[in-house]
Structure to design on (797 residues):
């Protein structure tokens, strides 16, 4: 800098005339251990001053070769491993895998099981979006208070999961053809209690956050993702819907009993970080509507298809792709079964968070380094799913 | 060194407490252990849940989770350590200031856990750094993590300052920094740190008669 | 609506003349039939499906590879599978498959990243784990393993490094590795220690 100064003085040109001040870009490696990378994720950011010029995501720090393990185990043995993919929404991951295998093998799920699946999956959606907003605010510097509010609600939902499946997080609840444990009266009462109190909590959360000056200043017009770019980049989930992409797999594929339930799909207009935050609040309100309908309309009956064998479960040869709308996006499983049909020949997870990171660089260019962290928080990644 | 009970009680009545310096030293140390904010995988969520309002790890002295290793006393390795991440974990451990402790939380950090058959999974963080407390579970409940912190506190309470019994950071011959593994073509090099971890060798081949 | 697979095949033959397109069957229950296209015409067929007004497949959902090692009568190949959906018309999937030989030097497939940006990371993953090189990919390097790693782990003939988790009484694969690494006590010694049964 001192060299540049003397060069300016000797040449008689003022600094305002054309960029003759020599600057250097700085390469910063954010992660893999960093409070705001949502896990072990690394971003190599090149900044010019404070402005991001280039960003390369580096992942693989949690690559636990889930796909290779599944090829060595039978179909049902991989179910606990799907819990650990996106470790916030273990129930949703289970459903995607169970749905894919049921599609391949042609198993029909009884109606009570379908309703229970919807109840549990929508509770997971509430849990995930609450925690995602909590962590997004953590990234903005609201040091841990929104997380405390979010985890308070999470504890209620996770208590229900523990009552139903035996474990707080890694539930391993779904089976091919249904679910493992039935909901009794006490669990239904817990579920109804959560659904009744949730709108109140959402109102409290919104009162503190939605019109908050700091949130508005830090998220509006930051990280804009245009609609066409989102479709081309295979972005799914709330991130895509915040950019105006009208695609919700619950409405398109109508898996489970979603075809008969009445709910709307909120869409954003601008596609900035604020839209990605607010769409999660709206999706939570829609999830509460779905839960109310499902809890009212829960039929009686078996919870697992009786023709499914528990031992020696075989799948006919062939391949198939099944997908559901998890809170993070489209989670799909591409499964190939060979002639024996005892174990998957190829087991591939289509991870929403991994693919949603494709456009991270495009969203961050031109913004400041501090905005990078907020944009990453709004995509809501979980490394277990990014790296598998 | 034992203090006469009667004398201690008598002095207490006058507002004088008599404790060994060692006890005071350890009491200060164990009552304010600040963990490093270092969650790797699913166990990290239970670690965060332990720090939130319901389970509240702050009661036990872990008031804040520091983001930088320079200010942390405790590294809770929560989650699977992959081979790609292992050099970073060792580097962070080296950067922590002594005295430092490690808790291996969850089955993955102890031995690779459910993912032990993996080509990218390090089968236990104790291959490269010394571990003080192991918590089994997948994931361990928040109460288990609290129990581990209490166990660590008891361990610290039992540390001595007298020559010959000191912890390793007062020993000039013990390593201050642990060697960081590097990425090889097929595996990490070295696959384990021999001074910290010895591969158990003795195992038995079992015949059919014994099984039945 | 997506027409039947035979009509899809005819449409591709019209759009990309000279292409060799076969229909690959699937399980009877799932009914997800796919089109196996040859490498030279893959890009043209994919572009046709993206731009043609009937289909408008603007969303590439899933890209993956499958390894089929050589068997007695058939040569081996690595198959790359693309699942295409349409956001504009809300239909799908159209499944495209392409095969490449397993030898690393010839294992090349044209990249579809110029058409759908979402293929970028998934093709990098297929390169990392299978060794398939995607010609035309803007940034083909390893994504999940470290750069110095030389193997392609999801191939069926991958040998992981010799490092087993200790088991006190191993069986099967673990037993074979324990024999290699030494320190295994023979059954006769152990029977004595156990006493007679």
């Amino acid at each position: 800098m001192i060299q540049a100064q003397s060069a300016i003085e000797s040449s008689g040109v003022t600094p305002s005339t054309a960029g003759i001040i020599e600057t250097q870009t700085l390469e910063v490696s954010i992660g893999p251990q960093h409070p705001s990378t949502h896990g072990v994720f690394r971003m190599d950011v090149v900044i010019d001053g404070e402005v991001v010029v280039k960003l390369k995501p580096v992942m693989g720090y949690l690559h636990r070769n889930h796909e290779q393990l599944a090829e060595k185990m039978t179909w049902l043995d991989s179910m606990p491993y799907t819990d650990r993919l996106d470790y916030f929404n273990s129930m949703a991951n289970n459903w995607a895998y169970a749905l894919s295998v049921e599609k391949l093998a042609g198993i029909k799920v009884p109606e009570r099981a379908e309703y229970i699946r919807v109840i549990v999956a929508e509770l997971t959606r509430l849990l995930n979006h609450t925690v995602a907003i909590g962590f997004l605010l953590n990234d903005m510097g609201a040091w841990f208070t929104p997380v405390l509010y979010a985890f308070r609600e999470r504890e209620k939902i996770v208590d229900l999961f523990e009552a139903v499946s035996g474990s707080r997080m890694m539930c391993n609840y779904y089976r091919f053809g249904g679910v493992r444990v039935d909901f009794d009266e006490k669990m239904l009462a817990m579920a109804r209690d959560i659904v009744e109190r949730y709108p109140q909590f959402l109102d409290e959360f919104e009162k503190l956050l939605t019109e908050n000056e700091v949130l508005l200043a830090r998220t509006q017009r930051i990280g804009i993702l245009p609609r066409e770019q989102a479709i081309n980049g295979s972005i799914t989930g709330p991130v895509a819907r915040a950019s105006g992409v009208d695609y919700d797999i619950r409405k398109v594929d109508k898996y489970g009993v979603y075809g008969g339930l009445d709910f709307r799909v909120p869409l954003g207009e601008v596609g900035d970080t604020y839209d990605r935050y607010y769409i999660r609040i709206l999706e939570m309100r829609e999830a509460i509507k779905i839960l109310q309908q499902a809890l009212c309309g829960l039929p009686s009956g078996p919870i697992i298809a009786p023709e499914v064998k528990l031992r020696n479960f075989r799948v006919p040869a062939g391949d198939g792709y099944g997908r559901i709308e998890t809170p993070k996006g489209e989670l799909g499983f591409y499964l190939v079964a060979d002639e024996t049909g005892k174990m998957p020949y190829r087991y591939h997870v289509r991870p929403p968070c991994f693919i949603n990171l494709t456009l991270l660089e495009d969203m961050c260019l031109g913004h400041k380094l501090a905005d990078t962290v907020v944009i990453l928080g709004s995509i809501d990644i979980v490394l277990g799913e990014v790296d598998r | 060194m034992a203090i006469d009970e009667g004398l201690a009680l008598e002095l207490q009545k006058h507002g004088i407490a008599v404790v060994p310096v060692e006890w005071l030293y350890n009491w200060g140390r164990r009552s304010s252990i600040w963990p490093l904010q270092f969650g790797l995988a699913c166990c990290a969520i239970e670690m965060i849940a332990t720090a939130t309002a319901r389970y509240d790890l702050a009661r036990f002295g872990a008031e804040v989770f520091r983001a930088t290793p320079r200010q942390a006393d405790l590294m809770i390795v929560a989650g699977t350590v992959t081979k790609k991440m292992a050099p970073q974990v060792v580097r962070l451990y080296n950067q922590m200031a002594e005295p430092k402790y490690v808790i291996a939380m969850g089955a993955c950090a102890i031995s690779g856990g459910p993912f032990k058959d993996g080509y990218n999974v390090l089968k236990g963080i104790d291959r490269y750094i010394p571990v003080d407390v192991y918590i089994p579970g997948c994931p361990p409940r928040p109460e288990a993590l609290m129990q581990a912190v209490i166990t660590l506190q008891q361990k610290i309470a039992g540390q001595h300052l007298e020559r010959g019994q000191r912890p390793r950071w007062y020993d000039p011959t013990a390593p201050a920094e642990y060697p960081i593994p590097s990425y090889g073509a097929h595996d990490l090099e070295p696959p384990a740190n021999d001074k910290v971890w010895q591969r158990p060798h003795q195992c038995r081949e079992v015949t059919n008669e014994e099984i039945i | 609506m997506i027409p039947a697979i035979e009509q899809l095949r005819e449409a591709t033959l019209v759009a990309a003349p000279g292409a060799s397109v076969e229909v690959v069957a699937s399980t009877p229950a799932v009914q997800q039939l796919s089109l196996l296209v040859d490498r030279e015409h893959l890009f043209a067929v994919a572009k046709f499906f993206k731009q043609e007004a009937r289909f408008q497949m603007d969303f590439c959902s899933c890209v993956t590879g499958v390894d089929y090692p050589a068997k007695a009568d058939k040569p081996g190949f690595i198959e790359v599978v693309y699942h295409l959906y349409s956001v504009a018309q809300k239909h799908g999937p159209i499944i495209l498959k392409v095969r490449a030989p397993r030898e690393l030097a010839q294992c090349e497939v044209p990249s579809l990243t110029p058409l759908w940006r979402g293929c970028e990371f998934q093709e990098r993953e297929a390169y990392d784990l299978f060794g398939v090189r995607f010609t035309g990919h803007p940034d083909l390097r390893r994504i999940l393993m470290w750069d110095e790693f030389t193997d392609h782990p999801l191939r069926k003939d991958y040998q992981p490094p010799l490092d087993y988790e200790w088991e006190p009484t191993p069986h099967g694969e673990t037993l074979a590795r324990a024999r290699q690494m030494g320190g295994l006590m023979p059954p006769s010694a152990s029977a004595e220690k156990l006493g007679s049964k």
Q: What stands out?
A: Chain A is about 45% helix and 15% strand. The beta strands of chain A are 26-30, 42-48, 51-58, 174-175, 178-179, 318-326, 329-337, 344-350. The first strand of chain A starts at residue 26 and ends at 30.
